[in-house]
């Protein structure tokens, strides 16, 4: 008995030591990758700027990352999507070419990533669309003052397009122009149209099994469980779009890309990684989830704007369906407008066609800072 106990303790002790060793090796490897990334993406220009700082926004400490090779360049504020999927930490490699032409500002929004606050300090009621809009307005005002700029550009992605185009309506005097990538329109119609597009494809290919599964989902979304129902079925629909060749990557691959970026970023601590996305954004029945599912931008902001409007639309984007985006774009009136179609993209143009986005930013967006519309 004693010898058996000794063996068990020995094995447990060895397992603990092995776990410590493996954990130590992973931490060492993470630090090496972080050091490499910091060196690789360092801003070396004498006129450059690279600031990672917390700012008091809406009564909370929220983090901004400001980078560019020339402080005199126009400012481009990027509004991340989600809800709750920040870009500080995993966007350096994508945006580095932009920094030749723009000073790029990434912002981890309220209660996300580096801006995550303990639930005791931030009650769920503060996570509302109106509060997020107020935060956005404060961030823009701070950037204008911090960088001594009269106007900036806003680029919104996915959910960030809601905040961005609302700012284009609310504060046109602050903006050179607005760029919407994967432009949101109407969230209930988004869920239904995503489903309808895949069902049409299943019938076109005579995939009766898939068509039967899709028809069994109706009504979509469940009126009594809109957020969770749309998340659950949205995940399934995304996978099926990939299998049918209409999406550039499976959802697991997209998540893996983001996780690795966050894990190896020199800007994130291990504690920053625990809440992405935070559950407060997607819990069923919360004020935010109800507001999120009720988004209807054509009704909320209309179709007339006082600033240039550019949409960058994935020609295969069924997650935020290109059909809805295109229909609204045709109705928009603005001093200047253009829809740039990304022909080989679904919902991840920054991964699929980064070169085309760079060319569009330089040839279509940048000139708006010098022109009067």
Taking the sheet with the most strands, its summary is: 8 strands, mixed
Task: Indicate the structural class.
Answer: alpha/beta
The number of E-state strands comes to: 8
Order the strands across the largest sheet as they lie in space.
Answer: 1-2-4-3-5-6-7-8
> What is the residue-mean pLDDT, rounded to a whole number?
84
Descriptors:
8 strands, 373 residues
Describe the overall structure.
The chain is α/β, with parallel strands linked by helices and 373 residues long. Helices cover 45% and strands 14% of the residues. The protein is built from 13 helices and 8 strands. An 8-stranded mixed beta sheet has the order 1-2-4-3-5-6-7-8, sandwiched between helices. β7 (309-314), α11 and β8 form a beta-alpha-beta unit. The relative contact order is 0.13. The model has no long low-confidence stretch (mean pLDDT 84).
Short recap of the structure:
The protein has 373 residues and is of the alpha/beta class. Helix content is 45%, strand content 14%.
Topology at a glance:
Blueprint: H1 2-40, E1 49-57, E2 60-68, E3 75-79, H2 92-95, E4 103-108, H3 129-146, E5 152-157, H4 160-170, E6 175-181, H5 187-204, H6 208-216, H7 226-243, H8 251-264, H9 287-293, H10 297-301, E7 309-314, H11 322-331, E8 337-342, H12 349-352, H13 354-365
Parallel strand pairs: 3-4, 3-5, 5-6, 6-7, 7-8
Antiparallel strand pairs: 1-2, 2-4
Helix pairs in contact: 3-4, 5-6, 5-7
